[in-house]
Amino acid sequence: MNLFLLTALAMVAFAANSILNRVGLSGGDIGPAGFAMIRLASGAIVLLALLWAQGTRVAARPKPNMAAVAALTTYIVGFSFAYVSLDAGLGALLLFGGVQFTMFLGAFWSGQPIAARRWVGMAISLGGLCVLVWPSSTVTMPLGAVALMLAAALGWGIYSLIGTRVSDPLAATAWNFAYALPLAAIVCVPFVRGEPLGAQGITAAIVSGGLTSGLGYALWYRLLPRLGATTAALAQLSVPVIALGAGLILLDEPATIRAVVACALVCGGIAFALVTSKASKRV
């Protein structure tokens, strides 16, 4: 399967993961702490089982990459807690906007040349994302939730940047999940006792952890060395568009002029940034 199709598959997993988070938390069957813990635990179990099935010595634990573990923990915990009191559209804008800037600045800081058209394409896509997800009515912006979502964006951006240098994506993802679980427990356990734990919320967390997070992130780590930082950052702007398309197809949601224009801007910006001349060096 070629790089484009594999990247599209990873973006579909990310979109599905976002939907599962909202379904689990908005239904009132589970709280953010429980969701984050079950998500990490199920991801670790599935990925370590895959390593064992491949004949990898799971018992021989490698030393943790603490930067990757801390970044993954920050993303998953921050994301879960932020969405409790943050509008979904505004949360998506903060998350994906923050990821863009983190990964672009990371590439710039490491000395990678970034063509001007990539900055322009990112700006066009972010503008389209604003049109797509900005709430039509007045919403509150609780500072705590905004800070948590920005922390989640920073965590995911750093986690993705680290992934551009990974040689064994499955093993790296599996052990990152395993090591992130006790780290997340330090934050989450005090909150779990007061949270509901219903069947729908638990199911959503397990599917999110084992499938769309665990396997999706392993695939993402496999692709990152080939994509590079800025291409990977730009590709992720398609996730809200994919989520919107899923709503149109699966939930029979109506398509609006605003949504069509926004999706055109997002996809057009990505295309403008990534279509380069033969003489251009891809970053």
TrEMBL record:
Pfam families linked: EamA
Membrane association type: Multi-pass membrane protein
SUPFAM superfamilies, per the entry: Multidrug resistance efflux transporter EmrE (SSF103481)
UniProt-annotated location(s): Membrane
Transmembrane helix in keyword set: yes
Main location group: membrane
Keywords: Membrane, Transmembrane, Transmembrane helix
A GO CC term attached to the entry: membrane
Protein name: Permease of the drug/metabolite transporter (DMT) superfamily
Species of origin: Celeribacter marinus
